[in-house]
Amino acid sequence: MDHIAAAEERIVTERLRQKLNEVNSIAQSQLSGVQDHVNFTLQQAYFKCAYECFDRRRRQEEIGNCVENCSAPVMNAQNLVENEMAKFQERLNRSLMVCQDKFEGAKLQHTRTDAMKDLESCVDQSIQDSIKTLPHLVGRLEASLSVKD
Questions:
Q1: CA gap 145, 123 in Å, rounded
Q2: Of 11, 32, 38, 64, whose CB is crowded by the most CB atoms within 10 A?
Q3: Chain centroid offset of residue 70 CA
Q4: How far apart are CA 125 and CA 144, in angstroms?
């Protein structure tokens, strides 16, 4: 690989990294309301519920079961958010793999300069498509978790 091609590849790699960081930042921003609901509203309800479990008239096993029952809504919410985000990440990864496969195929055909531009364009489109799905994902999570504005 010549020096120009290597430098060009490093530049494109850095741009791609920046675009992925952008997706991460946008996802965190859009999910902040959901995270706030889980981390504060549901956690607060959990601690209030768990506090009520500690009664001297109860046996240790009853207290443990009570606290475990109190934690169920928080655990379910966290699992739901993690599963949805894992699916989002998986879809993004698959679309990026398609871009990578196209790039590798173009490299084999020795059309490197177009391949780099095509790779960057493909990745950009995949990222934009993923970003467009975030409001729908957030809406589903908010509905499932009964998040109030």
A1: 32
A2: 38
A3: 26
A4: 29
Domain of 12 in residue numbering reads as 3-22+72-145
Convert the pLDDT of each residue in 118-146 to its tens digit. Answer: 888 999 999 999 999 999 999 999 999 99
Q: How far is CA 34 from the centre of its chain?
A: 12
Model confidence, pTM:
0.82
- Measure the CA angle with vertex 120, ends 115 and 125; round to 5°: 125
Q: Please give the tally of structural domains in the chain.
A: 1
The 3 state secondary structure assigned to 50-86 is HHHHCCCCCCHHHHHHHHHHHHHHHHHHHHHHHHHHH
Burial (Cβ within 10 Å: 0-12, 13-18, ≥19) of residue 86: exposed
